Known about the structure:
Radius of gyration: 23 Å
Number of domains: 2
Structural class: alpha/beta
Helix content: 25-40%
Strand content: 15-25%
Order of helices and strands: EEEEHEHEHEHEE
Amino acid sequence: MTEKMENDIIVNRVAGSGLVSLDLEEYYHPGERVVYDIKDNLFQGLLLREKDFREFLKTHDWSVYTGKNVVVVCSEDAIVPTWAYMLLAAKLEPYANVIAFGSEQALEERLFDIALRAIDMEEYRDKKVVVKGCSKRAVPTWAYMQLTQLLKPVAQSIMFGEPCSTVPVYKRPRG
Length: 175
């Protein structure tokens, strides 16, 4: 947003506004995403047999998940005990960057949660923060909600959009 002055000097009002821009896209984890579907371990596609599953866990090459972001799912309507997911997590943990359960969306939310919690919110203390709205990568709506919760205790105000066109989200009460 610019404004012409009387002597034809162009002034950038956004630059002088004290707004701080925060782009969630910068916190997107670039690592490979992998889906581990436990259906491949089911007996006749119905249930998990402990003895067979434990043998698989011993012999499988878990190093193929090194540095990857893994979401564990079961795409079949089957009986899978909770301990089976715990065993998978124990095997994946030394190799995978992040492990999530349920859906690829859950994995993205977990990755953003880790990234958001690593931000030093003190950098935004008493600032007018604009959370950038347009991005090339999909940012889960949940991440915007989580960021709002993290910023609210420190920021003077939170806006959504671009510095030249924002939607007010929160403004600290005076007093």
